[in-house]
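$ fold --in a.seq
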Amino acid sequence: MSTGQGPPIDSRRWTGPEPAAPPLDRRGARAAFLAAGGPGAAAPQRAASAASWAGLALLPFVVLAGAEPGASLLGLEPTAARLRGGLEALLSPSLGLKGAGGMVSLLGDPRLLAALLALGGSAVGIASAWRHRAALARGFAAAEAGVPGVAFRTHRYWEAAPFVLLLVAWRPLGGDLLLLNALALWLLARLAAGTLTALAERRAAGLGARSPASSGWDLASLVLSLGALLLLLAYLLGLLA
């Protein structure tokens, strides 16, 4: 028995597909975010950045301590030898000669510094995000107002940074390219800390990664990335065979 109703009519035959969401004016969104959220909205990324820049100040000492005896250090070879000798003399009474040598090698490994910076920067950034979640919520609401379907991000996402850091740091470093490798590791650590902080910011504000709705992908990315960094730290400290 027929109801007399024909097939449903799709108005897009005449109107065409729905228009795409307008692109987000990142500079304007950033200004709106800071104006609405105030200093608290900018605090998480600043905290993560501060940890990273503090680590950059330590990087030259790490490179000098970890340089091989025959490596070229632009005339700083005597300084590197004195630094290693001073550290070994300082640590020998408590660790013994062999233990002091191993500790100096560990302290001179830029992979360890990178892992600590990525974890430390992420930790302070995440803690700051949860502390300032009300300010972040106001900031995101203002930044994304009038632009449906587009998510504002306080940091340029590079979600692969923690895993690239894990893969790169798994290989031993040394030789004349130690400084270049150390700088690359620092950059990856900085990107990892900023990215994980950005994920935590949206979670703290009650937002998902790409939509106004809360998303479990943010939390999953945080857990996996932090787990990868902890795995790297355990490997460098010799806790993994």
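$ fold --in b.seq
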Amino acid sequence: MAGYISEGQQKRDHNGQRNICAADGHPGTEDDPLVKTTDGWRVHLSDTTDPSNGFYGQQQEG
């Protein structure tokens, strides 16, 4: 999972929250894994594909 990670997300990662969604606090799953947003946070894939979500369309490429 290369790409930009925000300073805030880096702190979360180092605190053991690498697989915890920054948006809802729930872990990523096989069916709904975490992806990185364009501003460097880890959120569920579904957060970036749901037009009613504030993270819609914000998934990093690659």
